[in-house]
């Protein structure tokens, strides 16, 4: 662990940036980041950031502003961001990891653009075909990790096995669990269920011995149950599962609210029962699971939800800091090497 | 509408069959089925059913038992059910639609076996490549329909367009809405998002003029919101979305319960507030949306959850009765013909 951890921040990314970004840094430094040796490179409009830092004394003390004139629009196409993104706050935030000035980058900007810019500048880790986005998923106790949730539409079995490795190392780093369990998302738990890619991945994860605690198939309903720590799927299915879960949580939350506001008696009792409801709201708060991570690049990039507030942003910063302070990248490399050795051995055997 | 509607029931299908089946028929006849001219063909073990009918006077009066010796096991493989299923309660329940004795069949048995047996006996409706399973999805107001939720792992654009037609006709029949809106499940709402099949389906639904109110892409989070009535997707994605939503609802329900049971004060207030909580529970009750329908066959088959109770089963019977009393099949044929005409015109133009 280095003496002081440097985080590179795209201060202009996000719906309400740079406001929520600076307030997020301040909130982080007074909560989870308290007493941790962390500094910030804030990439963005100097005048705007300066003005905000005047109201954020902790952030001001720990930050250095690197002025940029331009930003990547929230609706910019990835191709456009690649061609025209040079010199934007997002571009420079990633560049700071490449140059070694910072350990990790955080942005609440446009996901597609951030992925494209990150891939171009940082390049894939050796032995990884495509990066994945990992999401934190709430469970009754603790969280699970689901990946990919949107970086790769079509995935083959080699990629899905790599996702298993990336996700497992990520879970270990984030929650300090020795042997997280790994599962493969499918439409049933029987051997014969699923499409050809899912079955081939299952076969490979079951056969190859590279140190993962692979538990087999999990169904959509099992993600929230909590037996499996890392759930592997392609980016199309993962994205739809993640957003469906968010939509369902909102729907159910609405039913609860509606029920408790139903008549004068429930309204009165609900107001008396505010403590319990607050507790529930806190458990369901999407800000607590804010911070998707791009896995498989030479360098760590954390993506915050674009529409989060300062508390959600602070949570993304905490995810970034925890990762930076872990052995995450070394562990990924170790398990990836074991996976590729096992795959090679399998191929060699098959050819004889 | 015929004078008396005949429903064909697989009385032995389901975790607690025939008990919950007979109690479900009784419950239906004293609630949603009250004053409706409906009769039942109960396929199954005569002795067991007779004993149960002794405690179910309404059901007894409206039922005829057709004795079968064997049943399809809840864990039987579809191939096994096809080879060995003849003479089971499930097989005979479907046969009764084929022979015209009944209008519609209901089973809470093994989904894969029921689909295989239904396809073999009833055959696909002309112009439909593969049947789909449609699920009822709760929304803030009313329900949506999502299909396919598990019958087809890999789907091409022709199938997905057919699902749009089947789902739209189903929604109209179930909820008597003139022009239900149709959406295509994807990982974003921009034109360029998604895999090749999704984009090709979008293009086709946008271009072809066959009378659907197609609204474009919807994301996972939009299903529960309520703007789109019919959501089209392949069976892999749809199954995972459905089960993920069920799992999330359970998780959130658990958080609510936990929060309200947190301390003596919340416990006391919660017990005082039981009416509101009961109301919420009712809104979230999965029994209210029980009853998946196999669409695209020559005949209607309604699949109840295997683990439901008599109230859930009664809801599946209500779905079946509503469909049978509607113009559902004629409407499907009309819109399917329009779809295929439009596709033909497109091909002809392309060849010139």
Describe the model.
- With 352 residues, chain A is an alpha/beta fold.
- Chain A has two domains: 1-128 and 296-327 and 340-352, Isopropylmalate Dehydrogenase, CATH 3.40.718.10; 129-289, 3-Layer(aba) Sandwich (Isopropylmalate Dehydrogenase), CATH 3.40.718.
- In chain A, 49% of the residues lie in helices and 16% in strands.
- Chain A has helices spanning 19-30, 46-53, 57-62, 78-84, 89-98, 111-122, 157-175, 196-207, 235-260, 264-272, 274-284, 310-324, 328-351; strands at 5-10, 38-44, 63-67, 104-107, 132-138, 143-147, 181-185, 213-218, 230-232, 292-295, 300-303.
- In chain A, strands 3-2-1-4-11-10-5-6-9-7-8 form an eleven-stranded mixed beta sheet, with helices on both faces.
- In chain A, helix 4 (78-84) packs across helix 6 (111-122).
- The longest helix of chain A is centred in the last third of the chain and has 26 residues, at 235-260.
- Chain A is globular and about 65 Å long.
- The termini of chain A are far apart.
- The relative contact order of chain A is 0.16.
- The mean pLDDT of chain A is 88.
- At the A-B interface, helix 9, helix 10 and helix 11 of A face helix 9, helix 10 and helix 11 of B.
């Amino acid at each position: 662990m280095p003496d002081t951890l440097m985080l590179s921040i795209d201060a202009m990314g996000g719906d309400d940036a740079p406001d929520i970004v600076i307030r997020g840094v301040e909130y982080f430094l007074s909560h989870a980041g308290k007493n941790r040796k962390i500094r910030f490179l804030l990439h963005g409009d100097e005048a705007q950031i300066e003005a905000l830092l005047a109201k954020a004394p902790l952030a001001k003390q720990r930050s250095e502003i690197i002025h940029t004139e331009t930003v990547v629009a929230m609706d910019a196409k990835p191709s456009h961001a690649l061609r025209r993104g040079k010199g934007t706050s997002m571009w420079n935030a990633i560049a700071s990891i490449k140059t070694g000035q910072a350990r990790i980058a955080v942005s609440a900007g446009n996901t597609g653009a951030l992925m494209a810019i990150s891939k171009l500048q940082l390049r894939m880790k050796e032995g990884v075909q495509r990066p994945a986005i990992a999401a934190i998923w709430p469970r009754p106790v603790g969280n699970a990790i689901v990946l990919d949730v949107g970086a790769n539409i079509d995935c083959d079995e080699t990629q899905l096995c790599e996702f298993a490795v990336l996700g497992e190392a990520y879970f270990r780093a984030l929650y300090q669990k020795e042997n997280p369990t790994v599962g493969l998302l499918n439409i049933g738990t029987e051997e014969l269920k699923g499409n050809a890619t899912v079955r081939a991945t299952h076969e490979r994860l079951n056969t190859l011995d590279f140190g993962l605690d692979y538990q087999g198939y999990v169904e959509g309903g099992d993600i929230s149950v909590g037996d499996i720590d890392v759930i592997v799927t392609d980016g199309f299915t993962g994205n739809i599962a993640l957003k469906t879960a968010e939509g369902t949580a909102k729907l159910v939350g609405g039913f609860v609210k509606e029920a408790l506001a139903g008549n004068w008696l429930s309204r009165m009792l609900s107001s008396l029962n505010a403590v319990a409801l607050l507790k529930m709201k806190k458990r369901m708060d999407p800000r607590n699971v804010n911070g998707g991570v791009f896995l498989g690049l030479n360098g760590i990039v954390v993506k915050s939800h674009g529409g989060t507030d300062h508390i959600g942003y602070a949570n993304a910063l905490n995810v970034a800091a925890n990762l930076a302070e872990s052995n995450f990248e070394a562990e990924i490399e170790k398990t990836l090497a074991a996976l590729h050795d096992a795959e090679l051995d399998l191929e060699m055997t098959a050819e004889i």
